[in-house]
Design brief:
Layout lengths: L4 E7 L5 H14 L4 E5 L5 H13 L5 H25 L3 E5 L2 H7 L5 H8 L11 E6 L2 H8 L13 H17 L4 E5 L4 H18 L2 H8 L1
Parallel strand pairs: 1-3, 1-4, 2-3, 4-5
Helix pairs in contact: 2-3, 3-5, 4-7
Bound molecules: P1-(5'-adenosyl)P5-(5'-thymidyl)pentaphosphate (T5A).
Length: about 220
């Protein structure tokens, strides 16, 4: 079993994952814990190339080709980054993981996700805990519209993103032990409070709070 802790962050476009990642990083490193951050697709040379193909370069991808590209990037990230970091006892903050594939590419991707993550010995394909930043599609659009250019996935319809959001909410209901819902429409202070409430019990249960007291 991995000695570290995998915290995944999920949700539709502009829901606040990257902002939350920075906050959690500062909070946990401030406590003296070892923290690594990474993202999907990305986090490795292969993953970053796949990210460009998927988000910026090829607009007429077959849906299976799209799914396999996300999975290829994930397999490489597991081997190069997640496995070594978790074995070294780090807390890994991962911006998107298997739940993204299930929400965006559909639930048929489930078995592939399990395969890609086997080497990590995870209890669940969502990591030790998954923070799902729930936001309405309208709210999401309002947050992302100021960007210079929407990427190929962001250009998809509101109906598509309604479906993605519903897929996430269904996953959260089915796997409530691992997936914790964050109301991402709240202001930053409230979101940060929700994050701390969700993560702290796990840090205590897994002995991380003890470790920081020892580091004092
Ligand atoms: N994808 C990915 C798949 O289809 N399948 C897969 O298997 C995987 C892994 C990845 C794309 O790939 C798809 C999903 C995605 O389309 P990405 O860069 O991860 O791309 O995707 P995005 O979600 O688009 O990343 P964003 O940077 O857009 O969103 P974030 O990180 O969720 O949002 P963030 O933190 O940048 O915040 C957006 C804005 O809102 C403000 C921030 O300041 C920022 O301006 N904000 C708030 N404002 C008010 N109140 C709050 N509480 C706020 N929190 C943030």
């Amino acid at each position: 079993m991995a000695k570290g802790l995998l915290i995944t962050l999920e949700g539709i476009e502009g829901c606040g994952k990257s902002t939350a990642c920075k906050f959690i990083y500062e909070w946990l490193t401030g406590l003296g814990l070892k923290v690594a951050t990474t993202r999907e697709p990305g986090g490795t040379a292969l993953g970053e190339k796949v990210r460009s193909i998927l988000l910026d370069e090829i607009s007429n991808l077959d849906s299976s080709a799209e799914l396999f590209l996300f999975e290829a990037a994930r397999a490489q990230l597991c081997k190069e980054v997640l496995k070594p970091q978790l074995e070294q006892g780090a807390i890994v903050l991962l911006d998107r993981f298997c739940a993204s594939t299930m929400a965006y590419q559909g639930k048929h991707s489930h078995n592939l996700n399990i395969e890609a993550t086997k080497s990590l010995n995870l209890v669940s394909p969502y990591g030790d805990i998954c923070l799902l930043f729930d936001l309405s599609v309208l709210h999401s659009r309002a947050r992302t519209q100021s960007r210079a250019k929407a990427d190929l996935i962001e250009q998809r319809s509101n109906d598509y993103f309604e479906q993605v959001r519903n897929n996430y909410l269904e996953l959260a209901k089915e796997h409530s032990k691992f997936i914790k819902l964050i109301d991402a429409a709240q202001d930053l202070t409230s979101v940060q409070k929700q994050i701390k409430l969700a993560i702290t019990p796990l840090l205590q249960e897994r002995g991380f709070i003890e470790r920081c007291q020892m580091n004092d």
